[in-house]
Amino acid sequence: MPGARGGLRCPVRADGPAARWGWCLRSRRLALEKLISDAPASRPRSLLGLCPPLLLLPFPGACWCRSPVPTGSAPASVQNLHLCEGYAGPDGRYHPGFYCPRLTDPAAHRYCCRPGPHALKSCCSQGAMEALTGVNLSSLPVPGLLRNPLALPFVGLYGLLVLVLMALDLVHFYRTKRCSLGRLLPCGRCPPRGSPALGGLPCFPALLSVGGAAGGVNAACTGGVPGASSPALSLQEDYAKAEADASKAIEADGRDMKALFRRSQALQKLGRLDQAISDLQRCVSLEPKNKAFQEALRALGSSMHEKMKTMSCTDSKVEQMFQILLDPEEKDADKKQKAAQNLIVLAREEAGAEKIFQSDGVRLLTRLLDTAKADLMLAALRTLVGLCSGHRSRTMAILAELGAPRLSAVLGVEHEQVSLAACNLLHVMFDSLKEGLQKDFRGKEDAVDLKLLIKDLLELLPLEGASAHGRDNALNLLIKVVPRKSPKETNNSMSLWVIDQGLKKILEVGSTVCGAPGSLPVTENTRMSASVLLSKLYEDLKCDAERENFHHLCEDYVRSWFEGRELAGKLRAIQTVSCLLQGPSDAGNRVLELEGIMDSVLSLCASVCEAHQLVAVEALIHAADKAKRASFITANGVSLLKEIYKHSERDSIRIRALVGLCKLGSAGGTDFSMKQFAEGSTMKLAKQCRKWLCNEAIDAGTRRWAVEGLAYLTFDADVKEEFVEDKAAMQAMFQLSEDRSVLYAVASTLVNCTNSYDHEEPDPQMLELAKYAKQHIPEQHPKDKPDFVKRRVRKLLTAGVVSALACMVKSENPALTNSCRELISRVFLALVAEAEDRGGVVAQGGGKALIPLSLEGTEVGQTKAAQALAKITITSNPEMAFPGERIYEVVRPLVSLLHLQRTGLENFEGLMALTNLAGISERLRQKILKEKAVPMIEGYMFEEHELIRLAATECMCNMAMSKEVQELFLAEGSDRLKLMVLYSGEEDEKLRRAASGTLAMLTVLHPPICKRIPQVVSAQGGGSPASRAPVSASRPVLRAAAHKYCATINSRVLVLDY
């Protein structure tokens, strides 16, 4: 054995049989002790300078040399005593090394030990090692403790990171190799890679589209097997476009296999399987060895076979359902009901509707209509609705088969549900034919069909055999389909044709006197529906000549019943006047001025016949609209109405007389100085109206007249105060608002209670002139001051007025005219006047109801509703007030407030509301851009009014986050950037901060603007130092200062105190 510094190779010649295990038998305890004693204190050596690390044997003085230690090398440090190097076990398997102690070992086991050749290395204590080696280790320093459990969490995080990366890699692999994976599945989506049909292009879920004449592919493949659907081809229009593009490419090159293959896919999605097979067969003929084409053709043939099988099965089912319904011997009602329901459900799908139509279904459905059984007629009508929905050609064929007279006859049956179903069918037919008329598909033929349907509806109106419900449905249908939907439409020929052909028929319905011999059967809503239709037709006229023709027709009809007729004819004439006064009031006033009409009304009010009194009193009430006529009636008919009210035994007549008195008593309007009746009389009339209104034992028609009375009496502020205190009366009125004929009266009452009608403050100088000229000066009631109005609004909100108004707007009611919409919009604007009330209005559905009001109706009504929306948007979180897609519907009404014809307050509120919306999302900013609001916002940045100019600048600050707006500031010849720089030096701190915020937003989001700002400042030349201050500062300072302001604008809700 060499000296202490030497090494020892194992085995040596003196070693015994155990030397084959690499065990050194010549090292002895003395050598170890000498090695320890020779080691310097400053640099302790290993126990074995021969072969570190030391491994103990069961007999003393043996060591295992893993590798020789070269002579001259420094002996290993004592710290290696705790290192167990990797080694090969007895079974030949390699074991990795480790440090002692391990996490599973006690802290004192800091030495690496191996008891024998057949044992594994392990950690042991100092005592155990001394016992095995017989060497005292106390003179050596104890090895350090290297384990640290704190590393485990970091190891776990590292492992989690590895798992996340593996998952992302798997997702990426799936997305890029989905076509390859799809081919391994039974229904693969893509043909083999490198197929000539696809040109070896990678597969992406893009729209099938082929380029122009060159036939180049504009999108990657979306699947080669028929039946596979692409996410981008989710709409029918996309498939049609893909088919059209492919056809253009094929026209340029008939051998373009890519275009043929893609067109076959598009045709398959469009349901034209025969054409799709033709294209695939052409592909196979051009390239017979292409397996992708062969597999696609085989799959498409199989799909077509299955469809034919299904269709044949459907044919049998359709025939079976018709057999069950038409079999007179079938007594099972449940079976018939199930067959009818299945037929209706099948007709709602395009394929099922087409199958019924091709299976001679129209003739069979006609037989069901001819059975005159309500359940079978309902099934036939609802099935026909499915056949006609959105399909013009089928609608024309069905109309030709059934005939318009038959449909009109079904509409006039006594059964209410059957009549309503026929009305729905006719409405669907009108929509389908009008769609073809708008698209100019056989426009003349469609117009003729429409006129035939309308002519039969007009013929139904005066028909004595028609039911009351059928007559109402016919009127409602004419209201929906005849007038123009919007004044922007220039063609009102349909309304003119209806006036020429059917105005007298409509007036005949409106002039019907209930209970008179030979009168038409009508409901309580029939005359109101006729009035609404007349009003719609009159509003659809465009010039004075057309209106004059309308007046002449109405006058001729009234004269035909009034002149030379007996009492029954005069009653019809007076009833016609009432109908016109409720509808087109201009025409009614013209007719009322005919000789003898007004005198007949007053004389009939004194009639002993209750029916005559009823007609006359109603006419008198409607005639008292004009102030001059009201004064005439006050002088001649007040005493008569009082007598009727006091002595009549029928409540229906008393309530009408009461409403007449109410109307005459309110002739002075809101003028406190004009009193038609004695002090206290108006309050008595209002009290009686509230009493009748709350009496549920009285029929709804009589209670409706009580609301009419309150609509006039609430001009008096004393009546308003008492009405809002009567919670029972308010709840009764809200419940009664579901009746179509009372909507206008309810809205008028609420307008009066909230003082939301138009009133202008008189000019003080004009007041002085009026006093000097001794002219009458209107006086305001003391209880109409703002404090009283606020209290009344709060009480209405507590009573649930918002919910009632929302229900009135949602109901599809012909009586919800544009004038009625305007009144409701006025009430909503009054309800949101105070910021603290707006949250409650939104919670009860006011925000949702205001959107349709701001898009339909009169211009004044739309403006009032838009202003109410602006107030809500200013002080509420728009995302909560208008959740989901509804928030995007608010943009257009708010932009309408920026038009020049709006008031300054409306402009200001619109700008503030758009500022809040523009700070929410890019999609909302794009919506504002689409509505062309940016030029108007820029225009108001030059406004003289400080608040409007500030609001426009703040709105532009938020709009600057949009890329399109940023580009506007870099446009050649634009002074937008110069204006912002100038505003940054203004004395108004808020304006200065808004402009600085805009500059900061622009410089951060669009760095090229940074280069333009110094140019703008230098171009100003002798500009004031204040105007150059924002840009003379360093760019980071400018951003930091201005961003603080921008963050304030975007994070808070702008609260306006005005």
From TrEMBL:
It is found in: Cytoplasm, Perinuclear region. GO terms for molecular function: Hsp90 protein binding. The chain crosses the membrane at residues 150-174. One of its GO terms (cellular component) is perinuclear region of cytoplasm. One of its GO terms (biological process) is cell differentiation. PROSITE patterns: TPR. Residues 476-664 form the UNC-45/Cro1/She4 central domain. SUPFAM superfamilies: ARM repeat, TPR-like. This is Unc-45 myosin chaperone A. It comes from Anser cygnoides (Swan goose).
